[in-house]
């Protein structure tokens, strides 16, 4: 979101990807070097917990950036979903110690659902893969598998589309984000909402695997002889 806001205002953006899943940690070495080499960088934006990763940043990583020996910019630490994290995860108090740190927090409703119970129930559904990233936000990131058992953007798109159009359930397709191939972001709701979602997801996955991925997602891709849509990814067995 910060990158989009910068682009709207014609401000250049230097993007530094997170380290690979499942940690999704800050690549502090690359960030530090960029700040050393590009004096025109004025602001560093960090999201904790990350969206869609659900992982909080390590305090030592933020401290390293704030302690940069030559950079004089501002660090924006967005802690929108920090209330779902451990009590020691927030760095809000640091804003009184570091003049170049600005902390952002927004109140979010807590529906009472639990992360661990959702992970347990999700992984029991055929067609759902691993939970990627962290568990410190009000959402989780899950792999959606094709019928060969591998994470698939085509399958995730189809499930996303079917849930939305047929059952009025909103998830977030994040398969195009770095390190999130084949993933949907699932929000944590009330117990009743979670139960309804799990039932709908189970039915949707069965429908998608039976009728083909093109039934849920429109757009580019090649439909093979089995009616399966494989946009921008290899079919199993291809190299």
UniProtKB/TrEMBL annotation:
Reaction(s) the record says it catalyses: L-histidinol phosphate + 2-oxoglutarate = 3-(imidazol-4-yl)-2-oxopropyl phosphate + L-glutamate
Keywords: Aminotransferase, Pyridoxal phosphate, Transferase
Organism: Metarhizium anisopliae BRIP 53293
InterPro entries listed in its UniProt record: Aminotransferase_I/II_large, PyrdxlP-dep_Trfase, PyrdxlP-dep_Trfase_major, PyrdxlP-dep_Trfase_small
Cited Pfam families: Aminotran_1_2
Protein name in UniProt: histidinol-phosphate transaminase
Domain Aminotransferase class I/classII large per the UniProt entry, residue ranges: 6-87
Ranges of biased composition (kind: Polar residues): 229-239
GO MF, any single term: histidinol-phosphate transaminase activity
E.C. number(s) listed in UniProt: 2.6.1.9
The keyword Mitochondrion is assigned to this record: no
PANTHER family: HISTIDINOL-PHOSPHATE AMINOTRANSFERASE (PTHR42885:SF2), HISTIDINOL-PHOSPHATE AMINOTRANSFERASE-RELATED (PTHR42885)
Cofactors (names): pyridoxal 5'-phosphate
Pathway: Amino-acid biosynthesis; L-histidine biosynthesis; L-histidine from 5-phospho-alpha-D-ribose 1-diphosphate: step 7/9
Region (Disordered): 216-239
């Amino acid at each position: 979101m910060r990158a989009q806001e910068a682009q709207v205002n014609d401000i250049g953006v230097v993007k530094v990807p997170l380290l690979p899943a499942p940690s999704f940690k800050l690549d502090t070495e690359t960030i530090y070097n960029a700040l050393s080499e590009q004096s025109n960088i004025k602001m560093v934006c960090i999201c904790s917990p990350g969206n869609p990763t659900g992982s909080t940043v390590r305090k030592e990583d933020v401290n390293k950036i704030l302690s940069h020996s030559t950079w004089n910019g501002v660090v924006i630490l967005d802690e929108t979903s920090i209330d779902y994290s451990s009590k020691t995860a927030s760095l809000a108090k640091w804003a009184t110690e570091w003049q170049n740190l600005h902390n952002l927090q927004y109140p979010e409703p807590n529906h009472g659902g639990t992360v661990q119970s959702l992970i347990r129930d999700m992984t029991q559904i055929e067609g759902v893969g691993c939970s990627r990233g962290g568990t410190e936000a009000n959402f989780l990131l899950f792999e959606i598998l094709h019928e060969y058992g591998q994470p698939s953007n085509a399958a995730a798109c189809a499930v996303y589309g079917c849930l939305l159009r047929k059952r009025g359930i909103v998830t977030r397709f994040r398969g195009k984000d770095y390190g999130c191939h084949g993933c949907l972001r699932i929000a944590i709701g009330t117990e009743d909402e979670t139960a309804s979602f799990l039932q709908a997801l189970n039915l949707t996955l069965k429908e998608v695997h039976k009728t083909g991925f093109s039934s849920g997602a429109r757009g580019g891709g090649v439909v093979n002889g089995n009616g399966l849509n494989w946009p921008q990814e290899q079919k199993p067995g291809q190299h």
